[in-house]
Design goal:
Helix content: 25-40%
Largest sheet: 6 strands, mixed
CATH architecture of the largest domain: Alpha-Beta Complex
Organism: Falsiroseomonas algicola
Shape: globular
Strand order of the largest sheet: 4-3-2-1-5-6
CATH class of the largest domain: Alpha Beta
InterPro entries: Creatin/AminoP/Spt16_N (IPR029149), Creatinase/aminopeptidase-like (IPR036005), Creatinase_N (IPR000587), Pept_M24 (IPR000994), Pept_M24B (IPR033740), Peptidase_M24_C (IPR032416), X-Pro_aminopeptidase_P (IPR050422)
Keywords: Aminopeptidase, Hydrolase, Metal-binding, Protease
Number of helices: 19
CATH superfamily of the largest domain: Creatinase/methionine aminopeptidase superfamily
Number of strands: 28
Family: Belongs to the peptidase M24B family.
Protein name: Aminopeptidase P family protein
Distance between the termini: 57 Å
Length: 589
């Protein structure tokens, strides 16, 4: 990697800069990017889903969050790169301390304006580059994706595109705006009811759209990626344009006000609109909140997808209970077996992210991914963490279970910490809360049992989940770092507290929850909301310390297990159903 770093620095004088920012991002600013946009991984070796590099003439910094602290040090040469925590030691503070007065280059396609605004306070001069300097030295860069876009049927979408466009356009008219740039490919997919295969785990056709205040849409997608069926699906209200014509279309907005979401829109758009004489105005992507609030069809699709997923999980857990103590399993072979079970389910398309299959010490790497180089046996008498999910055409799933491989009893310390994680998980899932409460208000509830023992975890408690879209969806989340977006009916979020002891084991328990109106109570002063649990899979009883559980917590686990058995048991073979019956027995003591 040293030669790549040197080649990048060799371009600084030509570009008139003293440093450059290299985010893990593409022009659509999504979490997952195609191989052609893996510039951060090419430069540093870091393969995580979030990170940023700052390369100066004499020093180089890699910023990662708590999920990747261990992974980054394993993948990246520490003699070339200095590691910084993305939240605790943000890029702006490092720029202010290490590069005052310097000229720092950036690709305006890869940074939203909101992020650049924060960096502009660091006492440096930010320089927008005409091309990406990595691309100029990446000789074998893969070609961009070019798969066909496809319709997302109304049977799964629940609302036709014309109705969605009309509602979104109405918000623009109310704000006095002539149009909105939809740079987030998830919003384009949702608004037009289209999907694609440009990314391995997120069913997107990477495209930009412009929605005008009357509901018409300009879609910027290579026409060769749209066959006659898709064109008919899009209808007369959607005009298809080659992406190269985007600057000309933006120029036509001279004298008009155009909404840009500063958090999810590349800074390039604001620069182009201002140059054309248009007025960019900050405002939330008009599709983002409606997309998160699943309609009735999408809600039922989520239930159906999770029931199918639960069958695959039960089959996997029954198989694992037999196979793990016998030996012969590896992290990759176990994950492959779970994927094979899922692939038999109706409407299955792909995993929703690369499975995190971590045994023993690998479970402590929060976003660990087993590779042929790291794949290790799953041994008896250790903890095994499996975090995985699937994309079904009617819904997206994400589940984590921590398992004891047996056959002996789990150590007391592991059971105590697992139980504290479980208690936080239970507290969140059972919560009733007033309308208007946001995710950051709830995060501490899942941490309280760990905090009582002086423990914590360095990641958020929950993220939003799309409907046959991204497994990580905004704008709502359950995290101290999340924006305070009020939770609303139809939102799907994860509930995944954890604990990680580096070098030893990791614990995480995750279910997906759907926000619903809560039944009223006598004297209730305002509307309340509650969570409907979508995920249906037993917790590992061998890791539960019953002495730590309150009676109400035991009853909650028993009720959940009874539901799992009632809904999933009839869908299994006799042998798998027998295993599930044992796994769902009522707690004793």
């Amino acid at each position: 990697m040293a030669d790549r770093l040197a080649a990048l620095r060799a371009r600084f004088d030509t570009l008139g800069i003293d440093g450059v920012l290299v985010p893990r991002a593409d022009a659509f600013l999504g979490e997952y990017v195609p191989p052609s946009a893996e510039r951060l991984a090419w430069l540093t070796g870091f393969t995580g889903s979030a990170g940023l590099a700052l390369v100066l003439r004499d020093r180089a910094f890699l910023f990662i969050d708590g999920r990747y602290t261990t992974q980054a040090r394993q993948e990246v040469d520490g003699s070339l790169w200095e590691f910084r925590h993305l939240i605790d030691q943000p890029p702006a503070s490092v720029l202010k301390a290490e590069a005052p007065g310097r000229r720092i280059g950036y690709d305006p396609w890869l940074h939203p304006e909101a992020a650049l605004e924060r960096l502009s306070q660091a006492g440096v001069t930010l320089v927008a580059l005409d091309g990406n300097p990595i691309d100029a030295i990446w000789a074998d860069r893969p070609a961009p994706p070019a798969a066909a876009a496809v319709p997302h049927p109304l049977a799964f979408a629940g609302q036709d595109s014309a109705a969605k466009r009309a509602e979104a356009a109405a918000t623009l008219r109310a704000a006095g705006q002539g149009a909105a740039v939809l740079a987030d490919a998830h919003s384009v997919a949702w608004l037009l009811n289209i999907r694609g295969s440009d990314l391995s785990h997120t069913p997107l056709a990477l495209a930009v759209a412009i929605l005008d205040a009357e509901g018409a849409v300009d879609l910027f997608l290579d026409p060769g990626r749209a066959d006659a069926g898709l064109r008919a699906h899009l209808g007369n209200g959607v005009a298809l344009h080659p992406p190269a014509t985007l600057p000309d279309r933006l120029a036509a907005f001279a004298g008009r006000t155009v909404r840009l979401d500063p958090d999810v829109t590349p800074a390039w758009f604001g620069r182009a609109l201002r140059a054309a004489g248009a007025t960019p105005e900050a405002g939330e992507d008009p599709c983002r909140l409606p997309r998160a609030r699943k309609n009735a069809v999408e809600q039922q699709g989520a239930r159906n997808a999770h029931r199918r997923d639960a069958v695959a999980m039960a089959r996997f857990l029954a198989w694992f209970a037999q196979a793990a103590p016998a030996g012969g399993l590896t992290e990759m072979s176990a994950a492959a077996r779970l994927l094979a079970f899922r692939a038999e389910g109706e409407h299955f398309v792909a995993e929703s992210f690369p499975a995190i299959s971590g045994a023993g010490e690998h479970g402590a790497i929060i976003h660990y991914r087993a590779t042929p180089a790291t794949d290790r046996p799953i041994r008896a008498e250790e903890a095994y963490l499996i975090d995985s999910g699937a994309q079904y055409r009617d819904g997206t799933t994400d589940i984590t279970r921590t398992l004891w491989t047996g056959p002996g009893e789990a150590p007391a310390e592991l059971r105590e910490r697992y139980t504290r994680v479980l208690q936080g998980h239970l507290a969140l899932s059972a919560l009733r809360f007033p309308d208007g409460i946001a995710g950051p208000h709830l995060d501490a509830l899942a941490r309280r049992p760990l905090w009582l023992a002086g423990l914590d975890y360095d990641h958020g408690t929950g993220h939003g989940v799309g409907s046959f879209l991204s497994v990580h969806e905004g704008p709502a989340g359950i995290s101290r770092a999340a924006k305070p977006v009020p939770l609303a009916p139809g939102m799907v979020l994860s509930n995944e507290p954890g604990f990680y002891l580096p070098g030893h084991y990791g614990i995480r328990i995750e279910n997906l929850l759907m926000v619903q109106p809560a039944p009223g109570l006598p004297g209730q002063a305002k509307p309340f909301l509650a969570f409907e649990t979508l995920t249906l899979a037993p917790y590992d009883r061998r890791l539960i310390d019953l002495s730590l559980l309150a009676p109400a917590e035991r009853r909650q686990i028993d009720a959940y297990h009874a539901r799992v058995l009632a809904e999933i048991g009839p869908l299994l073979t006799a042998s798998d159903r027998a295993w599930l019956q044992q796994a769902c027995l009522a707690l004793t003591g």
